[in-house]
Specification:
Elements: E1 7-18, E2 21-33, E3 38-42, H1 49-57, E4 64-69, E5 72-73, E6 81-84, H2 96-101, H3 111-124, H4 140-152, E7 158-162, H5 170-187, E8 190-194, H6 198-204, E9 207-212, E10 217-223, H7 235-251
Parallel strand pairs: 3-8, 3-9, 6-7, 7-8
Antiparallel strand pairs: 1-2, 1-4, 4-5, 9-10
Length: 253
């Protein structure tokens, strides 16, 4: 099980230069994610959701303010953070086992420990029996499971997910939502996920962060105070979904 981390964003702003002109994309983001929380970011296109993940993972260090993991400022990529994208991004010439093992390339672990971790996380995501399969032999859902295992194999404190289920059909997506919850509970990792699906956000997360665009800023933090498993048809679930949708509609005004 991972040691979940406390993530703090303090007055975080980000500006790009476009045609030599400043383009603000994030403004004064204040956010705290507690150890082991599942948090979803929602908002209109262009509100900076994926930019926030890029800053947290350390792919972009040019920003104002502070991003702290366990009170240490993030200044670049680190083994304590992993990310899963919308596309699995598996290497087509490597099998499932070897693709997952890539997540340990920068880790100082023995080959024996590497084999143990890879096998453990193949089991965690339910891919036992497919260790030697190549990416083209996997369904979309199975390929994304392999990508999640690769993100978890190094036992990060925080797993970032950038619309990881967005390219899947509705039935596979619903099934993987259940699987993602199971993996989250089993691994004990802090998860921060970007999604455009409000129902998905309410189904999965402890709180939903609604962002406004141009520049991106937090409009509302909505706690989802419901135990798992959640009934999507229950009045409480519907009320929380409508609360998020109201804030989203407001973000377009």
């Amino acid at each position: 099980m991972s040691n979940a981390g406390t993530l703090r964003l303090r007055n975080v702003s980000k500006t790009y230069q476009v045609d030599s002109q400043p383009l603000p994309v994030l403004q004064d983001i204040e956010l705290q994610v507690e150890p082991g929380e599942f948090v979803c970011l929602v908002g209109p296109s262009g509100c900076g959701k994926s930019t926030i993940l890029r800053l947290i993972i350390g792919l972009d260090t040019e920003y104002q303010g502070n991003i702290l993991l366990d009170d240490v400022r993030i200044a670049g990529p680190g083994l304590e953070r992993s990310i899963v994208f919308q596309e699995p991004r598996l290497f087509p010439w490597l099998n499932v086992e070897d693709n997952i093992g890539l997540g340990l390339d920068a880790a100082r672990v023995s080959e024996a420990e590497k084999r143990i971790r890879v096998k453990t996380h193949i089991d965690v995501v339910g891919l036992a029996g497919f260790e030697r399969a190549l990416p083209h032999q996997l369904s979309g859902g199975m390929a994304q499971r392999a990508a999640i295992a690769r993100g978890l194999v190094n036992r990060p404190e925080i797993l970032l997910l950038d619309e990881p289920l967005g390219a899947l059909d509705s039935l596979t997506r619903s099934h993987l939502q259940q699987e993602l919850l199971r993996i989250w509970r089993q691994e004990g990792v802090t998860m921060v996920m970007v999604t455009h699906d409000v129902e998905e956000a309410v189904f999965l997360s402890d709180k939903v962060i609604v962002l406004e665009a141009r520049p991106g800023r937090i409009r509302k933090v909505i706690p989802i105070d419901m135990p798992h498993p959640r009934d999507r048809l229950s009045p409480h679930f519907v009320a929380r979904r409508e609360a998020v949708l109201r804030e989203l509609r407001g973000s377009f005004q």
